[in-house]
Amino acid sequence: MTYAIECRRLTRIWPGNPPVEAVRGIDLRVEQGSCFGVLGPNGAGKTTTIEICEGLVEATSGEALVLGKSWATEAEQIRQQIGISLQETRLSEKLTVFETLTLFRSFYQSGLDPQQAIQMVSLQEKQHARIRTLSGGQKQRVAIATALVGNPQLLFLDEPTTGLDPQSRREIWKIISDFRESGKTVLLTTHYMDEAERLCDRVAIFDHGQILAEDSPKNLIRQLGAEHVVMFEVEGQDQPPEDFGAGLPGVISARSESGTRSLSVSEIHVAVPALLTAISERNLKLSSLLTRQATLEDVFVHHAGRALDAEEAGENP
Amino acid sequence: MRPSFQTHPFVQLFLARFREFVRTPEAVFWSYVFPLVMMVALGLAFRSGDEPEVSIAVVAGAAGDQLAAVLEKQGGFQVMRAEAESCRTAMRSGKVDVVVQLHETDGTTFHFDETRPGGRAARNAVNDVLQREAGRQDPLSTTDVTATEPGGRYIDFLVPGLIGVGLMGGGVWGVGYAIVDMRIRRVLRRMLGTPMKKHHFIGAMMGSRLVFMIPEIIVILILSRLLFGVVSHGGYAAVGVIVSLGALELACIGLVIASRAKTIESAAGLMNLIMVPMWVGSGIFFSAERFPDLAQPLIRLLPLTPVISALRMVMQEAAGLTDVLPQLLVMGTWTVVAFVSAIRIFRWD
């Protein structure tokens, strides 16, 4: 079958001193009708990869096929069938929502009525408002509408909810789910793991221009072998070693970060009593204890060896 | 669905540009109102007519008062009477062109600045009056005809210059700044991700500029005619041709400026680098021929110089299009060179 996106050994080196290897050999297959998430911290090479697929950046080597077509020979046909929303595009503040969508619609041979696109992002009431007067979340929905108005088979969204409030994020999630349900494909990048878990059929976790892991969110978490996390803190000067708790029954691994200790746990009903016993044997005093389900965040920590919010500089030049 | 006229991308890009322009009041002010304000202000400041030609100061005293009375009766002089020190101050500050001091015993002294325009002329004018009063007979009879007829006044010279200013501002800001702004907002990059044809975009940016220019120029021409009686002695068709080609040329210059700049700072720097030589050298407010001969070839090659010079030849000297062919040729060359290099180096992100 034809994949919506197929990347083979993609690399991209930004010239400079020293040159930046933003993408270092990415292989990626996105099935038609799925929602694929590209996850990772800033500077992981997510944007560069998605922009190669969008035809905005040329790969240094390797190949990206979109809807079975090659950017080298069929760029025009690909552009007719994809919709994109970039990070940080500021559409013209002086135009109204309707005017902006009519403009973008005019670039496509076939597509939606601008009204329809406005309806898909629930901005009917704002359709004659100038973009300047919209909130951040509404502006982002207009940006997504400009991607939808060409009635694309494949939608690219680069960090669609970054910087938005929870309500706006949920509205955008709904737009993406609705689009998915019509049987079309979405490729989105995000550094919010909850967003990926909620929306994506499959995710690829990026770090340093490479894919650390790729599977469905559920499988990735299951593969950890530890579906729960126990987080705790102990009081006092006399702190136990960083890997305290690692050998306890039901515990897979232990880490400590600025005083907060976390255990990856397979069987929570075994691990917690064992932990409490170990603490009292050492005469330590527990100051907090919390258990939660493992998330993609933990998957990233497991593969990258560091927390996701420990950001690293150096996205695009 | 075939794109109809309404939904044709060129029409939509043009409309978007038009809406952005009319919804930016400051842009409308700078392109339409500002040249008019400048025309009215300069036209009034330099209008010819009953203004005294010569301002002089006479050092107070019996003889001085008598001279002042004679000069005022003669007309054409604005006379100030004051103590010697105040007279000198008035000359230093440019209020008077010459200071006249009549001594009781040994004649008359003129104080004036040789390097200042009007200094020597004022001295000679006063001297003539003094000499005639003292009984000089001129051996030749002469008649003066002053140039106040339309076509030869400063305002007639100024209007083509201001049309040039309008075309330059429109091209450099209306095309150049607008494109850089879109690049900074990453809208250019966003459009690159659509099937939009690049020539539709460039064409709409340039085309909208040419259309915005029409009312701008018409208003200048009508107002200068109503207020100051400025007319084109060489007809308006030729003016239209020169203005259109000039607008196209300067829009292409704006396009080159905008083709790579990634920040407002670098764009502003480039705009100044290109506009300042034209402000100074292209003969907007005074004739470019005042610059040294050595600079003339360079000045004639500035993009704005041939526009203004061709307009002046047509409007003031009733020249036809064939007379301004050299100018049209320079403009055409700039248009082609600027357009081709802009397209070559244009960056969408």
Question: Could you give a short description of this structure?
Answer:
The complex is a heterodimer of chains A (317) and B (349). Chain A is α/β, with parallel strands linked by helices. Chain A has 10 helices and 14 strands.
SSE diagram, text form:
The complex is a heterodimer of chains A (317) and B (349).
Chain A: E1 5-14, E2 20-30, E3 35-39, H1 46-53, E4 61-66, E5 69-70, H2 71-81, E6 82-85, H3 97-106, H4 114-120, H5 136-148, E7 154-158, H6 166-181, E8 185-190, H7 193-199, E9 202-207, E10 210-215, H8 217-223, E11 228-234, E12 251-257, E13 260-265, H9 268-281, E14 286-293, H10 296-304
Parallel strand pairs in A: 3-8, 3-9, 6-7, 7-8
Antiparallel strand pairs in A: 1-2, 1-4, 4-5, 9-10, 11-13, 11-14, 12-13
Helix pairs in contact in A: 3-4, 3-5
Chain B: H1 9-22, H2 25-45, E1 54-59, H3 62-74, E2 77-82, H4 84-92, E3 98-102, E4 108-112, H5 119-133, H6 154-184, H7 187-192, H8 198-228, H9 236-258, H10 264-281, H11 296-301, H12 304-317, H13 325-345
Parallel strand pairs in B: 1-2, 1-3
Antiparallel strand pairs in B: 3-4
Helix pairs in contact in B: 1-8, 2-6, 2-8, 6-8, 6-9, 6-10, 6-12, 8-9, 9-12, 9-13, 12-13
